Amino acid sequence: MVLKPNLTEVQRTFSGALVLPEIVPYVTVILGNNTGSVCTGSLIALDLVLTLARCLYDGFHQWEFSDSLTVLSGVSTLTNLTAQASVQKRYVSSISLHPNFQVTAADPSFGYNDIAILMVNEPFKETDSVKPTPVGDIDWTVSSDVKCKMAGFGAVNPLSFSPEDDHLKLHEVVATRRCDCQQSLINHFGHRVDRWICLRPEGNPGPCVGSAGAGLVCDGKLLALNVGIIPFSDLTQCIFRHTPMVSCESKYSLAIFLDLCPYLPWIHFNYREISAGPINCSKSNGLYPSLTAIVFVASLLRAYTATASRVYI
Hints:
This protein has 4 helices and 18 strands. It is mainly beta.
């Protein structure tokens, strides 16, 4: 059930439409009790949540562990949780970080191996508002635009706090395998870019601060995770814009998603109930990045503080 459209008077609409959890029952909220962080996750089994490994970090150090994380499902808004009958609360019993994920000055792993699976202490009870989503078991090889959706608790306006930041929002988006300024991105980030999925920048909706880890669902399957936003000052000439602020309101900002296909064998190895995906998912992509700009972009999701008490990742 869509409650109402929620539009902002900025260059792009990042707030989406306010929805109830039964529209996207796989969406979870991950609360980091040590850092006060909030991330979005996707329920891929009743006891498994898929999200970004970076959600457990603050800077170059891991601050969140299984005993400091809380996972909520069936959430409409992060305020007045006790008044929402659909909300279920679980604690994390174990964490599986991708073995090649690292956060160092040499390689912050932006858009590369940035994946974590949280096992909760007790399976969620399946209801209309709480259901797992299948993980895409097909290789995204299409170069054409694909209509998808993503949902999370991202900010309405990146420059100011809004009470609606706490509400679950749905974005109808257009995604593509080949990002705009693909060669420029490869020059900065290496061929990890070949496995990125981008949102078309001319479209209005998209993620903003607070949407890290949100799943990109296409044709009913979870295919990618939101890892960040890369700002450009000129997309026609592919010129990066170095700014300390998250510029998700700009039509020149690219929303970046990490394709899950290459990681399906690792997920399946740890959790057999999840499909291993097609053989070509596990092929090497020649990931040899130039790391000049990665530290800058990886910090974008931490740069925004606003007036809210929690930290947006």
